[in-house]
Design a protein that fits this description.
The complex is a heterodimer of chains A (529) and B (239). By secondary structure, chain A is of the alpha/beta class. Chain A is built from 13 helices and 25 strands. Chain A has a 7-stranded parallel β-sheet with strand order 8-11-7-12-14-15-16, sandwiched between helices. A 4-stranded antiparallel β-sheet of chain A has the order 2-3-1-4, sandwiched between helices. Chain A has a 4-stranded antiparallel β-sheet with strand order 22-21-24-25, with no helix packed on it. The longest helix of chain A is centred in the first third of the chain and has 18 residues, at 8-25. The termini of chain A are far apart. Classes of the chains: A alpha/beta (529), B mainly beta (239). At the A-B interface, helix 1, strand 21, strand 22 and strand 23 of A face helix 1, strand 1 and strand 8 of B. Strand 22 of chain A pairs antiparallel with strand 1 of chain B.
Chain lengths: 529, 239
């Protein structure tokens, strides 16, 4: 075997040189967190919109907290001197973002006022699934009516409830056509688009770029040929462009900046479709503690804002679980329901969180009619389930003006059509308006347990009608373990009166079987079996 | 034991549904426990590659036609993660190389006869070991990487093809019933059964640019032809 005349030393030297250059000079975007806000102060009446002051007062929150204070300017100057231009600054996180190489990271770490340094997350997923251009006729018009009626639109109408007085911030990839589309004429005429800001280009105009935001807004407040597309047609809006393109790409620093902007400008609710998954995180990090956006969502909740976020569209992909910030405790995470079957739509991401907390909280249709350019058409994604719930939340807030965000959060969960039953595909189900009007229909007990020697059966009484619409034949059941987490859950289409026959074994000890059928939830605890 | 209990529970419930239609069923006793994926401790994937054989020296090696000369690969690669920055791994696969010989007056390999087309085809099995250097923080994705490694290949099938147009051939004894003459000589004596080399790969997630450099000669000692080009540059897709 002969070796060619090739200089191995040259290859080695080139490789080492390349890696060194790559390691030393490649620049990445980092968050630089400061340890404190020494010497900083704020006049809340000058800084905040009156709505923000009102929300803080209503929620019993101090007008100014540590997170509201501006950053220490001497810290900012020192970082700027070392790293060059400051790309963004966050009061809530007490941090600035900069574009630097690893050499600068070690310099910054030596500064005594600098705490943690971590890369800025990119590549968030916009939770749009697919969309098809269609003109509205027959089935589509029917869907348009169903998407709001399933939540009780008529009842809200009868009670003149349309989210009036509630300020909703919508974070998305752009809002082209909102300034011209007839679906939003009522918002423009009444001057209910209060403020707009494009955090990607640092401009006020958001009426360009990705139309995803336009579709989302229509599912909160659009009106198509006198038919409402969402429930909060009377609300007012703050529109923020936070995502960079129609590609699934966005940056958390925009989201964070928009959060603070929404707080400053008096948002009561934030609607977001952002979801970070495998590009940036591992499934075990969906624990409600790890990501920066989850922490920001927590701060927003503490300031009295109700944050509503999509679960994500990974239900039928390898990832399968929710994306952050839907894993946050204080975020209403919304899953998708198939309007044709009335249970989980295949792409809607599943819960629970990595630490086994209940998610999603509620669900809404994952296939809806939304504003398009021009007209309207059918779209899919938990991005569109979320604004339906946002519209509902605005109505709930209007009905209960004295309740703070977390009270409203719990009430929305309790209004779910499956409540008190829940599972990791549907949460507590689709929120129902009748819950807020105490117009609760007394539901006849339509299932029962029958105990045998070594098994437990679930049956439907003879007087319950099993004919008719197959959508009403859905039975949900789960087995909850002693920690409160579910071991198993299922949805069954019922064809006969004997539904389940469960052998009672040691495996069920201390577990709870909970079954839901047509508004009735029954449960059995296996204590001593 | 707990696992067996759970399995039994699922099985028993399954049996107990009286001809009901199960629309959705989820057992989450293993949720978040079996972590698999590109950025875990151990990860394997199948790869496909296509590269062009490059002769940068143009003259110092046996002249080949570019871009007709190519190397195709298919194989399996496995990676073991040591840290966020460093991993190592192995790969095993099959390669098919085609060297199209340029037909010139100065041609001497494998003889001086000129043909309409002439090529050397090598089928090989190969194994490789590589070091992987990752850049940038990432989730459960491959991310940006540079691989540096070495390979060994066994050339188990070697073929020399020629093809000539003989439709107008008036030579006495020429085959008047054919328009083309194709020859195929396999088991070439002058090709080394083994060759070794280095490779480098730079990529993002499923896509990579790969360069191979053969360190050993393809021709056995005693054959004094200029070597076939050693460099291949191409792309790889992993799934």
């Amino acid at each position: 075997m002969r070796y060619s005349n090739f200089n191995l030393k040259t290859i080695f030297a080139l490789t080492v040189a390349y890696l060194s250059v790559q390691g030393t000079f490649s620049q990445e975007r980092y968050w630089v967190f400061f340890k404190d806000k020494k010497g900083c102060s704020l006049d809340p009446y000058a800084y905040f919109d009156p709505k923000a002051i009102e929300r803080r007062s209503k929620s019993g929150i101090p007008l100014v907290s540590e997170t509201d204070l501006p950053l220490n300017s001497s810290y900012i100057n020192a970082v700027e001197k070392t790293c060059g231009k400051i790309l963004s600054a966050s009061r809530w996180m007490n941090a600035v973002s900069v574009n630097i190489g690893r050499d600068k990271v070690s310099l910054l770490k030596r500064m005594d006022f600098v705490g943690e340094i971590r890369p800025v997350a990119r590549y968030g997923q916009n939770t749009l699934c697919t969309h098809r251009q269609q003109e509205l006729h027959g089935a589509n018009l029917e869907l348009l009516q169903k998407q709001v009626e399933r939540m009780g639109a008529s009842l809200f109408d009868q009670n003149q409830t349309d989210g009036r007085g509630i300020r909703i911030a919508v974070f998305d990839g752009g809002f082209p056509g909102v300034d011209t589309h007839p679906c939003f004429a009522h918002l423009r005429t009444d001057g209910r688009i209060i403020k707009t800001y494009d955090f990607v280009r640092n401009k006020e105009n958001v009426y360009s770029a990705n139309a995803h935001g336009t579709m989302v807004l229509s599912c909160i407040a659009g009106i198509y040929n006198n038919r409402r597309m969402g429930l909060a047609t009377g609300a007012e809006f703050l529109l923020a462009r936070t995502e960079q393109s129609s590609e699934p790409f966005s940056e958390e620093e925009n989201w964070l900046a928009a959060m603070e902007w929404a707080d400053k400008n008096g948002a009561d609710i934030i609607n977001s479709s952002l979801g970070y998954t495998y590009h940036r995180y591992f499934p075990v990090q969906m624990d409600g503690k790890t990501s920066l956006v989850v922490k920001a969502a927590g701060i927003a909740a503490k300031k009295g804002i109700l944050v509503i976020n999509a679960m994500g569209n990974d239900g039928d992909s390898k990832w399968e679980y929710l994306g952050t910030p839907a894993d946050a405790d204080s975020v209403i995470s919304v899953g998708g329901i198939n309007p044709d079957t009335d249970y989980h739509i295949s792409f809607s991401s599943f819960g629970p969180t990595a630490d086994m907390r209940r998610k999603p909280n509620v669900s809404a249709y994952g296939e809806v009619i939304a504003a398009k350019k021009p007209g309207a058409g059918k779209v899919q994604g938990t991005s569109f389930s979320t604004p339906l719930v946002t519209g509902f939340a605005a109505c709930a807030m209007q009905i209960n003006p004295d309740l703070d965000n977390m009270h409203i959060f719990r009430l929305i969960e309790q209004s779910g059509h499956l409540y008190p039953y829940y599972d990791y595909a549907h949460g507590y189900g689709i929120p129902q308006a009748q819950f807020f009007f105490k117009d609760t229909v007394t539901v006849q007990e339509n299932i029962y347990f029958e105990h045998a020697d070594s098994s437990i059966m679930v049956k439907i009484p003879e007087n319950v009608d099993l004919e008719g619409d197959s959508l009403s034949h859905l039975l949900f059941y789960h087995i909850e373990n002693e920690t409160g987490a579910l071991d198993k859950y299922a949805v069954i289409q019922v064809n006969q009166r004997n539904i389940l026959d469960l052998p009672v074994t040691g495996a069920l000890r201390n577990k709870t079987l909970r079954v839901h059928f047509r508004g009735t939830t029954i449960e059995h605890k296996f204590i001593s079996e | 034991m707990k696992y067996l209990f759970s399995l039994f529970l699922v099985w028993s419930i399954h049996l107990s549904l009286f001809s009901q239609k199960i629309l959705l069923e989820k057992d989450i006793s293993h949720a978040y426990k079996n972590l698999k994926g590109p950025n875990t401790k151990s990860f394997g994937q199948v790869y496909f590659g296509y590269g062009l054989i490059i002769d940068p020296s143009q003259g110092s090696a046996t002249e080949i036609k570019m871009p007709n000369s190519w190397l195709g690969t298919i194989g399996y690669r496995h990676k073991y993660k040591v840290s966020g920055f460093y991993s190592f791994g192995f790969e095993a696969g099959m390669r098919l190389s085609q060297y199209h010989i340029k037909q010139t007056d100065a041609k001497v390999f494998p003889n001086a006869i000129n043909h309409d087309k002439e090529k050397i085809r090598l089928c090989s099995g190969s194994i490789g070991l590589y070091n992987r250097f990752n850049f940038g923080r990432r989730g459960n994705i491959i991310g940006k990487f540079i691989d540096l490694g070495g390979y060994a290949a066994y050339n188990y099938n070697t073929v020399h093809y020629t093809k000539d147009d003989i439709s107008g051939d008036a030579t006495p004894g020429a085959d008047v019933y054919a328009k083309k003459r194709v020859t195929k000589n396999s088991g070439l004596d002058y090709i080394e059964p083994f060759d070794f080399g280095l490779y480098g790969r730079a990529g993002i997630n499923k896509f990579a640019i790969r360069a191979n450099f053969r360190l050993t000669d393809l021709f056995k000692a005693g054959y004094h032809w200029a070597e076939l080009p050693a460099l291949t540059i191409g792309v790889e897709l992993s799934i």
